[in-house]
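Dissemination and training. As part of the outreach component of the grant, students in the summer workshop were shown how a complex can be specified as a set of sequence lines and then modelled as a single object. The example used during the hands-on session is reproduced here so that future cohorts can follow it. Participants entered these lines:
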Amino acid sequence: MLISPDLCARLLASVEAGFSGQIAFTQELIRFPSVRGAEHACQDHMFRALRARRYAVDRFAMDRDAITTHHGGGAWSAQHSDAIIVVGVYHPRREKGRSLILQGRVDVVPTGPEDMWTHKPFDPVIKGDWLCGRGGADMKAGHAANLFCVEALRRIGLQPAATVYVQSVVEEESTGNGALMAHLRGYKADAVLIPEPEEEMLVRANVGVLWFQVEVRGLPVHVREMGNGANAIDAAYRVIGELRRLETEWNDAKAGREHFADVDHPINLNIGKIEGGDWASSVPGWCRIDCRIALYPGEAATRASKTILDRIAAFARSDSFMSNNPPKVTFNGFRAEGYVQEPGTEAEAVLARAHEAATGRRLQSFMTPGYLDARVYANYDKVPTLCYGPVSENIHGFDERVSLTSLKRITGSMALFVAEWCGVEPLSC
Amino acid sequence: MLISPDLCARLLASVEAGFSGQIAFTQELIRFPSVRGAEHACQDHMFRALRARRYAVDRFAMDRDAITTHHGGGAWSAQHSDAIIVVGVYHPRREKGRSLILQGRVDVVPTGPEDMWTHKPFDPVIKGDWLCGRGGADMKAGHAANLFCVEALRRIGLQPAATVYVQSVVEEESTGNGALMAHLRGYKADAVLIPEPEEEMLVRANVGVLWFQVEVRGLPVHVREMGNGANAIDAAYRVIGELRRLETEWNDAKAGREHFADVDHPINLNIGKIEGGDWASSVPGWCRIDCRIALYPGEAATRASKTILDRIAAFARSDSFMSNNPPKVTFNGFRAEGYVQEPGTEAEAVLARAHEAATGRRLQSFMTPGYLDARVYANYDKVPTLCYGPVSENIHGFDERVSLTSLKRITGSMALFVAEWCGVEPLSC
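and obtained this result:
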């Protein structure tokens, strides 16, 4: 059921009419410094926002046992968030259309040194077309769009003619356990849309992600006896060298792999964090590195974990220091497999029409080499999962920002998508 | 004035008689976890110990301006200790002999991961001949010996016939500013003895030490865009490589240098600490390394600092990432020059006789490639400065320990040294 040109025009005008309020709401979200473990207040804000808009709201804690026994569950480390998951449910009067999950999340990555930001990271400053702030692009702007695309219907007296779930999760940046928990809670729909910052494109394929920490320990001594002391920082760099060799091999394996063969470097190994030693004049006795590596879709996380373990163990045996002090490898976060959203679904066709109507351009798709919660719905519910969102810059960097004109286009496209996918009915009083 | 065989025997017997008390006092000192900035309680303990033994006690804060304007003053960073300096003054009735500074200090280096210790690091366990614990060897055992060698005289009704200063300082492990402050306060004597753990040998020559921190900053991005983000951890490692080349050049310059030419690797560069990045899935935007490098005696710390600055700046200009993001170099601790204790002093001759009488072996001397507070007295007061102390293992490491039989021999040697250097007089009532 295509939507009429008239409804299309009214919906886009309605998005426009609501956009200043949408920006203000996005700014409210950015003001919460909702880094891992500190998302509670922001989730409560989402709870209130959903309830105020007449959603029935379910909120629930993560079930550690259920998550960690699931093969796609991320490791439950001491840093794991205990914030709740919030799901707003918007029921139609009559379930005529196709149901939809609109997913967002409120966890954001650390800011790094604040003095490298032009403005304070949680101060949502607008400069020209850009809304700046940590987590604004990634992905509070998209999460606000989840709410405001439905509001665009309500503003003109309509509502979705099928159940819409607005899911607000956490742990997207570390384990993906928030989305997994919503799945384990039993939420399921005919399609899922997640407005991550994807440059106004649809994610066609997406890597899996593994997190692991390698800890090297050695024999610290006074620097005067340096020749006798194994330097754990040096040893950690040797481990990094071996992991880089593994990364090269995994990238070489892209040959012939659909969605990946033409990408320059699809598998990124990142050494994101390092800490070692206590004192400038002591040869360091310990060093830890926090690593993240990508997996091709279809590759089992368990198998990749074992490859990494075996590879580090074999390297350690060849290293004069580490053979006596094998590094300790801990999988401390993502244990997530990638996914491919195969072309040809009706959901994608609806999104393509909505996108073209809202932006005037054809919908393009691409492979993105970062983790996405979409993998939960694509892999475990096996429903069409559309990861699609606004233009951004510097996500995970300094001066992260999202384009407001792009956000408006995307919100328009999302409103049209909801109207066509779910159908519409007159607003309940 | 040589001391008589009879006095010698009585003094060694007196050290023996007091040794269980000396061990107990050393254990009391070890129980204070007096790492940098946390030496206050231990210094107050020393204050009470000196006063109880009838020393006149002076205690004073460090004078930041006086220290930092002195060319040998270490940098006053945020981590600098504000513990006081304690000087016990033991006056004779008649100043007949040669005065003496016995210096010790109570600051100790961090323990590292406590689970790598056999016993808790501040639990002074005795196992066979070894007294274990962080800071026991380095140098609370020697510091206790400062007190107990004088006690050995008093136990047999004697006291030094010249002023003895027992100086208890801090910041020996980071800046050397404690000893410098005692010097700036005006304390001076005809000789100085510092019982650092020196394997029952006399330090003939000693390197200077510089501390510096290099901070690399870059452009963090999401790991999905890794090719665009400069990885600060990788960049820091390139800086380490350049510093290692500098270290090699400085070691090559040992040729023809007395006390150093025959030492395998006299100049140690230590990368003692590293910290970088915040998040496994963000390309790290910053990394800091804490470094320590040695200088040959006679080499000006200011000149060496400039060499390091210039070297890092030149390297950064040749590096595609760092040329846009020059590393920041901060000298954050030691800015200390080395010293040579030339042979032929009367003080050394007295120590050699004392050592032989107490240990039955000839006194040997050596070059040690670690910082010593002795540089203050050797360079600025230009008085004979004897750094000489017990056998130890694992200083700055796990299970640091000092040999108790060695400690007793050294204490005997020190008592004989005090008796001959200062002369003796009957104990004041």
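Chain B is about 35% helix and 20% strand. Students were then asked to discuss how this feature might be tested experimentally.
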